[in-house]
Design a protein that fits this description.
The chain has about 650 residues and is mainly α. It has helices at about 5-15, 30-45, 65-75, 80-95, 110-120, 130-140, 150-160, 190-205, 240-255, 260-275, 290-300, 310-320, 335-350, 355-365, 400-415, 420-435, 470-485, 490-505, 520-535, 540-550, 580-590, 595-610, 635-650, and strands at about 60, 320-325, 330, 625, 630-635. The model is unreliable at about 5-25 (pLDDT under 50).
């Protein structure tokens, strides 16, 4: 038998005469928790795919559809049906007051609104229609299209609405710089590298598709878009990194016409850099922005649209599409490793082991996706054997510490660590994780010590993701994983990480969440990591964190936090309650040794709001891509995290 919760729940459903508001037969809180967990467990098992893995929809905001349409317009294909369907998806996301936000409930965003308006106009929407007029009015009140970020301005330049001189220079000569040079691709985050290299080809070639004036967006500018302007705002202090890079940008544009053979060599090197990373990958970096720029860069370099390479590049974008009868929308990437590892961790809480089909098939699927080649990470730790896992179906150059830690925990907790081939995989992954520890004691996502702060002042760094520094949530998750294999407090690696967590705790007692929204996510993960590493409830930082979590519990018993807390930390722990964030808070408190009313009220909130299907509703985004820039909704967060919390509470005897 794979788990015992379903059997127990079925027996209670058969025997008990009592009902809750959810219509579930139950007796007391423990009974309600048991039945809710059983329903969630059964629902999660139903969602497992035939080959053993899980993969939910990964939802972003309207920029995915708008950038797709803008790409298709550059290719002269905006008349295709998928563009019309993507436009309907964007229209559904428009704010009632006008414009587009980057997360549900957020304010209108300049860049998102510019791209959505332009895309809709390109496929024939009437600019005098109510939706377009309201968006235009909101945008102009925010300063107009000139206020959009650098990546948006490149889209406008591609379609002749903005000069390349007003975009940051992204010289392809970056690919030729020696490794010791301070501004080097190897000093940028992995996702920035995969964007910058194809974008450098676009920046150098400056392709433009001319549009009729009637299809342009001059009306979105408060001034002449072609008037000379800096690609970023200079600082008032004459001597600053921002002004230094602006001077370099000016010089690069002045000497560009005279680059000759160097420019040709740099374009060839950039193209080779891209092509080498197409291997065993679902597109460059396996994420949406580099996929878009890949297509444009290949076209700039003369690759035919009907070539195998271009078809491959377009297919990676098409594979991100979801559709219903009327709409098409796109995902930023796919999340099968992440969803599978988290599902296994939730099932492990329910008693599932490798002896059952669900776990065995999932483990076999994960085994086939272990990273066995050296990727960009090896630039920092060249002597380390490859190991670990990535996030998507195929992305072998970019394994990450978060997925690797989550897979390791799943293998340990389901009893799979001793199965055929697993000891070697675990050894490789643990060694790789330890080698990826940053000098400050923490862990980042994809690389080691990508921390040159001055690079955030480069004009094209306004995506807020130029670097990949240590963050508390990943550091604690790695600690949690290493603890499964005997590395705890007292081990030098763990002690350095624990010191990092002590330094990064906020005065409130919380920790910021880099990859989930936000302080609730970070605080939960750190508390769980601390517990596994051997730091008990008596430690002051644990007590402060638990006090903070209890202080932001809402009267209904749940927890919620908006993406707005990244812009305004005073909003930490405030927002519409959600199933995933309530589950995180409950698990954080349990890890801190709490068993009292706050935990029970959180569990009550979860059981009372469960759907008949076994899942939960969750509209807000609780995942983070790039803070302040891009947020995510993982559609299974509302299932496996509540299941994890409920099952863990039963194991600990909380109710």
């Amino acid at each position: 038998m794979e788990g015992d919760l379903v059997t127990v729940a079925s027996e209670q459903l058969r025997q008990s005469p009592a009902r809750t508001a959810c219509g579930v037969l139950t007796e007391g809180l423990a009974g309600r928790i048991r039945l809710a967990a059983a329903r969630a467990e059964a629902h999660l098992l139903d969602l497992q795919r035939p080959d053993g893995h899980w993969c939910a929809e990964l939802e972003g905001d309207s920029i995915l559809e708008s950038e797709y349409i803008l790409l298709m317009a550059f290719l002269g294909r905006e008349g295709e049906e998928d563009c019309q369907r993507a436009a309907r998806s964007m229209e559904d996301q428009a704010l009632p007051t006008g414009g587009w936000a980057i997360y549900p409930g957020g304010p209108p965003d300049v860049s998102a609104t510019v791209k959505a308006y332009f895309a809709l106009k390109l496929i024939g929407r009437d600019p005098q229609g109510q939706l377009m007029a309201k968006a235009r009015d909101v945008l102009l009140s925010l300063g107009g299209a000139r206020k959009s970020n650098s990546f948006t301005r490149f889209y406008l330049a591609l379609l002749g609405q903005f000069p390349y001189s007003g975009c940051p220079s992204v010289p392809p000569e970056l690919a030729l710089l020696p490794r010791w040079f301070p501004v080097h691709l190897g000093e940028m985050s992995s996702w920035t590298r995969t964007i910058v290299v194809p974008l450098s080809i676009v920046s150098a070639c400056k392709p433009v598709r001319k549009l009729p004036e009637s299809r342009g967006i001059r009306e979105l500018f408060l001034d002449d878009p072609f008037a000379p302007a800096w690609p970023a705002a200079p600082t008032r202090n004459l001597v600053s990194w921002t002004n230094c890079f602006l001077a370099v940008d000016w010089l690069a544009k002045k000497i560009e016409p005279f680059m000759g053979p160097v420019r040709r060599a740099s374009l060839a090197a950039s193209l080779e850099w891209m092509r080498s990373r197409f291997v065993d990958s679902d597109g460059l970096g396996a994420i949406f922005p580099p996929m878009i720029y890949t297509v444009i860069a290949l076209k700039c370099m003369g690759v035919a649209e009907d070539s195998d390479e271009m078809r491959w590049a377009m297919r990676q974008i098409d594979d991100l599409k979801l559709r219903d009868r009327h709409r098409v929308w796109l995902q930023p990437c796919l999340s099968p490793i992440w969803d599978t590892a988290l599902s296994l961790n939730a099932l492990a809480e329910c008693g599932h082991t490798t002896e059952g089909m669900a776990v065995a098939s999932a483990n076999e699927w994960l085994a086939g996706r272990e990273v066995l080649r050296k990727g960009d990470w090896a630039d920092r730790i060249p002597g380390v054997e490859p190991g670990g896992w990535y996030f998507e179906y195929r992305n072998s150059f970019y394994p990450d510490t978060d997925d690797t830690a989550m897979v390791l925990m799943a293998l340990a907790r389901t009893g799979s660590a001793s199965c055929e081939g697993q000891p070697d995989r675990i050894r490789r992954a643990v060694r790789w994780l330890v080698a990826m520890q940053n000098s400050d004691g923490g862990w980042a996502a994809f690389d080691r010590d990508i921390t040159r702060e001055f690079l955030t002042k480069v004009p094209f760094a306004d995506h807020n993701a130029m670097l990949d520094p240590s963050c508390p949530d990943i550091t604690a998750r790695v600690l949690e994983a290493l603890a499964e294999f005997g590395l705890r407090e007292g081990d030098p690696v763990c002690d350095k990480a624990l010191a990092f967590l002590r330094r990064t705790q906020e005065p409130t007692g919380a920790w910021i969440g880099r990859w989930g929204v936000n302080y609730i996510y970070g605080t939960w993960q750190v508390l769980v990591g601390l517990e596994k590493a051997g730091i008990g409830p008596g430690d002051p930082m644990v007590a402060r964190a638990a006090t903070w979590l209890k202080s932001v519990q809402q009267p209904c018993g749940g927890w919620g936090e908006s993406c707005a807390s990244y812009d305004d930390p005073s909003l930490a722990g405030q927002g519409e309650p959600t199933a995933s964030q309530t589950a995180w808070a409950v698990m954080g408190l349990m890890a801190a040794g709490e068993r009292g009313p706050a935990v029970r009220r959180g569990l009550e909130w979860l059981t009372a709001r469960q759907l008949p299907s076994g899942g939960w509703e969750e509209e807000p985004f609780t995942g983070t891509g790039f803070p302040k820039v891009f947020y995510l909704k993982y559609h299974y967060y509302r299932l496996y995290f509540p299941l994890m919390a409920l099952a863990r509470s039963l194991r600990l005897g909380v109710a």
